Amino acid sequence: MRLAEVFRALADETRLRIVNLLLRSELCVCEIEALLRINQSNASRHLSRLKNAGIIKSEKQAQWVHYCLDSQFKADNPRLYDYLLEQLGWVAKCSSDVKKLEWYKNSGYTCEHISADKEQITGLLEGVE
Fold it and tell me: Of 40, 48, 82, 100, which is most buried by a Cβ count within 10 Å?
């Protein structure tokens, strides 16, 4: 049953935080790592699980892989999509993640900046609350 796979994929705090960000914006894996302060291995493992469940999709752009919510998931599960969008906004960590995402998107930083100095960008994001 496909729905059971979706719920198993969503049954993890880090994956819910990733979905929360991707509900709002397409992101490169390096941006997800910086925003959530997770390493590349963990990010890849969680992104793979979400992708295999059909929740997100990826697209390679130059040397970066960008992720977004799968439009077919949204079309097939409109009530679940709306529920996630509404409820994740009430979770403190997710709310903080969205503030960091908004700051990052308004900062002008890009994947190139993260690649050049991930520690600096991560440090700047840490100060956003």
Answer: 100
| Full domain range(s) for residue 26 | 2-114
Backbone φ and ψ of 58, nearest 5°: -130, 155
- In three-state secondary structure terms, 27 is strand
Rounded Cα distance, 87 and 104, in Å: 23
83: its two tokens: 């529920």
Distance CA 72, CA 31 (A): 24
Is residue 125 assigned to a domain? Answer: no
Whole-prediction pTM = 0.94
- CATH number of the domain that residue 28 is part of: 1.10.10.10
How many domains are there within the chain?
1
Asked if residue 46 belongs to a domain, the reply is: yes
The DSSP H or E segment spanning 60 is: strand 56-61
**Which of helix, strand or coil describes residue 57?**
strand
Residue range 4-41, pLDDT digits in tens = 999 999 999 999 999 999 999 999 999 999 999 999 99
Separation between Cα atoms, residue 129 and residue 126, nearest integer Å: 8
Q: How many alpha carbons fall within 13 Å on the CB side of residue 83?
A: 6
